[in-house]
Design a protein that fits this description.
CATH superfamily of the largest domain: f41 fragment of flagellin, N-terminal domain
Shape: rod-shaped
Order of helices and strands: HHHEEHHH
CATH architecture of the largest domain: Up-down Bundle
Structural class: mainly alpha
CATH class of the largest domain: Mainly Alpha
Strand content: under 5%
Number of strands: 2
CATH topology of the largest domain: f41 fragment of flagellin, N-terminal domain
Strand order of the largest sheet: 1-2
Number of helices: 6
Largest sheet: 2 strands, antiparallel
Helix content: 55-70%
Oligomer: single chain
Length: 274
């Protein structure tokens, strides 16, 4: 039917052109953002899944930060323990030398001065072994805890090791000396016991540091896997989008021409009245 009021062909052509325009806008958005799903409008279900996964990735970032802080605190404690172990070895050498009955008083006094300096250095090391407010070797805290899961439900804990003088690990007292042959002789065994305890404590701290390190690697792998999964869901295939863009641009031009032809259809009515 020829009508000047209703142009069915133009309406159909316009519908298809609008569809092409919508597809073209979506493709251009994908090219601009690099995402085939950049908002809930593109695909609500996929967007929701991707957002949940992004939340987990952000959670694992916080987990890694927490684990790194915990590991650094333990590593500082280990450094302190290693220094204390070295000092105890030097103190044992001084005590053993001072236990020699043939040593004169002046020499023993000089050795005692060195011994006391080494003893006091242990206290200095212990008080300065602080990271992020945590000191794991002075008895101020019993443990350090770090996040192990993105929802905060699981944690990793490492026990502190108090290496202060007159403690259960370093049994050498704060006033220990080797000013006499008898005290020096007794001090040798006391230092050896402390040295054994410190080395055992270092082994425990090392195990704790390893736990943090393993969990950090695992959290990084999980984060990478989630990031890859998000990319599979929402990233645009730029090769496909490029081909689609060219196809839609041609389709758009054809649609414009089709609409133009359809709009000219009522003109044929004029021929009936010539």
């Amino acid at each position: 039917m020829l009508s000047v009021n209703t142009n069915v062909g133009a309406m159909v052509a316009l519908q298809y052109l609008n569809q092409t325009q919508a597809s073209l806008a979506q493709t251009q958005n994908a090219i601009n953002t690099g995402l085939k799903v950049s908002s809930a409008k593109d695909n609500g279900a996929v967007y929701a899944i991707a957002q949940n996964m992004r939340g987990n990735v952000a959670g694992y970032t916080a987990v890694q930060d927490s684990l790194n802080r915990g590991m650094s605190s333990v590593d500082v404690a280990m450094s302190a323990g290693q220094s204390i172990s070295d000092l105890l070895i030097e103190m044992k050498t001084k005590a053993l030398a001072a236990s020699d009955t043939s040593l004169d008083t002046a020499s023993r006094s000089a050795m005692n001065q060195d011994f006391v300096a080494l003893r006091d250095q242990i206290s200095t090391i212990v008080s300065n072994a602080v990271f992020n407010g945590y000191n794991l070797v002075d008895g101020s805290t019993t443990q350090i805890t770090a996040l192990a899961s993105a929802d905060g439900s699981r944690r990793i804990t490492v026990a502190a090791e108090n290496m202060s003088l007159s403690g259960s690990i370093v049994t050498v007292s704060t006033g220990a000396s080797i000013s006499t042959q008898a005290s020096a002789s007794t001090m040798v065994s006391a230092i050896q016991a402390s040295l054994t305890n410190v080395n055992s404590a270092l082994a425990k701290l090392s195990s704790g540091s390893k736990k943090f390190s393993i969990q950090i690697d695992f959290a990084q792998k999980l984060s990478d896997a989630l990031t890859s999964g998000i990319g599979n869901l929402v990233d645009a295939n730029m090769a496909n989008e490029s081909a689609m863009l060219q196809s839609l641009q041609v389709k758009q031009q054809l649609g414009v021409q089709a609409l133009s032809i359809a709009n000219q259809a009522p003109q044929t009515v004029l021929s009936l009245f010539r």
